[in-house]
Automatic annotation (TrEMBL):
It comes from Streptomyces poriferorum. This is EAL domain-containing protein. Residues 656-910 form the EAL domain. Signal peptide: none annotated. Residues 354-424 form the PAS domain. Gene3D superfamilies: 3.30.70.270, EAL domain (3.20.20.450), PAS domain (3.30.450.20). The lineage of its organism: Bacteria, Bacillati, Actinomycetota, Actinomycetes, Kitasatosporales. InterPro entries: Biofilm_reg_signaling, EAL_dom, EAL_sf, GGDEF_dom, Nucleotide_cyclase, PAS, PAS-like_dom_sf, PAS_4.
Amino acid sequence: MSAPASARAAFLARRHVVGRAPAFLPRLLIGLVCAGYGVGAAVGWGSARLALFMGDFGLSAAALVAAVSCFLFARSADNRFRPAWLLFSLSSLMAAAGNAVWGWYECVREVEVPSPSLADLFFLCFAPPAIVGLLVLAKRPVTRAGWVCLVLDSWLIGGSLLTLSWSLALAHTAHLADVEGVSVARAALSLAYPLLDIVLVSMVLALHFRRSSVNRAAVNTAIAALALTVLCDALFTSPLLRQTYRSGQLLDAGWFAGSLLLAYAPWGVARDEDDADRLASRTTSRPISGSLAALTPYLAAAVCTLGILYNVIEGRRVDRVVVFTGCTVVLALVVRQGIMLVDNIALTQELAQKENHFRSLVQGSSDVIMIAAPTGILRYVSPAAAGVYGREADDLVGAELSSIIHPDDLGRVVHEVRKFLAAPPGEEPTTRIECRFRSGTGEWLNVESTVNRHQGGLILNSRDVTERVRLQAQLQHNAEHDPLTDLPNRALFTDRVRRALGGRRAGDAGTAVLFIDLDGFKAANDRFGHQAGDELLIQAARRLQESVRAGDTAARLGGDEFAALIVGDGGHDQSAREYQVHEIADRLRLTLSQPYRIGAGEVRVTASIGVAFAEPGITPNDLMRNADLAMYRAKAGGKDRVELYAPQMQAEVVRRSELAARLRTALRDGEFALLHQPVVHLASGTVAAVAAQARWRSAQGILFTPAEFLRVAEDSDRTAELGRWLLEEAVEQAADRSRAGHQVSVAVRLSARRLIDKGMPFGSVEALLTRYGLPSGALMIEVADSDPRVSFDELEQRLVALRRLGVRIALDGFGSGYAAINALRRLPIDVLKLDRGLVEGVVESARLHKITSGLLRIACDLGMQSVADGVDVPEQVLALRAMGCTHGQGMAFSGPLDEYRLRRALVRGEFPVPGSPAVQPVLAGGSVPLLTGSHAETPVPPT
């Protein structure tokens, strides 16, 4: 029995124990009723009339109860045995009718029951439905030979019983009927009862060996009920008892109990209990019942022989009925044995074919099949060993199994085998063992074996899984290592940090994690191509691997980020340890900053390194986070340096996170305000344009400039949302000013990356201009060109489309961006806005003076207007005007103004300009595109 089957049988057995109490009550009730009826019949019921009534109508009532019970069960049942219970109901109904007629004569009419009578007709009709019902319950043969054997077995049993019964009683009954001149009907009736009982007994015995396994307990109870009825019929028809029988005697108790048992059979046994019995009997009762079924023909022949021998011993002439019946039984036995012989020959041939088939499978299988004796000696090895192990099967036979197992695996294999053999076979029929076997060449092969029990020993079905093991190891290596550099990846590095912080090294403050970022790698990758970038990363990984100690771990976390785990040495001098790790990190920085030979040239990058030391109770993620924060601090501090982690770094991150969280709700809550800074004509002091600038007044009353909140919002989804708000608010207020008579253009600063972002499509700008009715030329977009990832092709297409709408384009921060010349060459620029860094030193530095003068000359030669950002003092105004700069923006004129103060300034129309005005070209349309100031904003006047 399999483990699941045994578990289910145990579960059902437990259910049987729990459900035994409810099922015990009806059984007890039936037992008490039958016992009461038996006691009453034994003592004569107290009166002759009551004995007649209970012997006739009592039996009729019991049979009627059985008929109704079987009928109701047949109606509720939904299986192939439903007709059987209907037939049992009909059979019981015939018995009830026969007893009722019998009681009519004896109790009602008080006359002797005639023979034959209507009661005999009903009693004779009892056996045929029961016989057919038993045939329905029997397991149906699947072949013609099976049907023939079923018929022959039935006749063998019935013929043998007929021979024995005829010899013992029936011949004497027939002889008396002939001598006494009894009528033919009465003589036939005398013989019909025993003959039908013989047929019924034959079916009961045949069904006992061929009954179905479905609802077996109910079927067994029904068979027992019919067997008890047949036994009482046999006693009733015997000449010794027939002459003295009267209704109400003890024999009636057997018929009464048989009827109640039949009524109880379909309902009294739970199906779950029956299923548990069936599962339990599969391993115990089947061999016994199979043996009895095989002995049935011989037992029948023995009974028939006993019948004939009885006549010979008694000195009687052998009756023709006995001779005829005996001959037919012998003939049936011969035929049945012939069928069995043919069937055995067919089975033998089939067995030989299957044996050849399995021999071919074993010999032709690519798996090696070995049989080991209980001592461990190999008794059989399949020919596949030559191809799998490189050793002939005959060389392995007789060898010890332990001799071909790797010594390092032998102890584990012996332990698993002993554990397997100690377990019950039903719970653990097989086991799987993987170890290394010695091949014919001396190599060790990874072998997977399925082990089964065999006569105290083992059967091993083994296959070579060396390639699979190698592939699994390779896959494991690939999952834990970077495919480009073959260094440990983030997952393996995190696991090793976890190990370093745990175990015997837990609490070692000397353990440190280094995060390394290659400064300038992205620029080199864009300049020389991805293949050169990959080669640079490979060389950097090799340098890092060679620079760390043997017990340390170097890893690539992704992109140009690397990491190193420096394991502590258990020392207690923390300052010395920090100095040592800092020295290691600085050596790594110098090593990684050496020129890289890529192709025919050299590439230079630097390294920024962050160092974090372990603390008691720190988690791997926190330690790696600290190193990452230190690395970013090193990059922010000028790059190419080593930075140690300090707790204030985390506090800064928390502050920025809180600021970013507040920023996310600022737009929704309307906390942003729009200010405008005038752009002044340097020659006349008139206001030519205004530059829109966003300010955030938080709920705590803090006023943040763009230098603060844009740094938090950079590269987030809120940056795009803020840009859309700034553009729409600036266009709306500019349209209001235009309708109020202030014809001045407005400049809005947008990054190049946001301009080509799909989150702000081209149609949105056109929709804004149409919605608010802003005239052509009144809007200028200041392009902040500082992102090398921006595609110039996409940016050029977008700016050309905006120019068609009448939007003017300014290049912000001119003189600081690396791609400024390329932007001048490709982009449709109307205005150049000088970077604040050039304007701040234009008076003091002769070098900056010459650079700024040259840039303004380029703008003039290209026919572009120029705007100087950050003009804060009169000397800058004089110097820029002398160089040819047309417009300026800064505190020399005005800071950012709210809408009320801006309109007052526009009404005034001009600002005082230092020095005498020089003749300068006037901007077309009297307006200039507006560019937002740099992040270093001037203070905001109170509103």
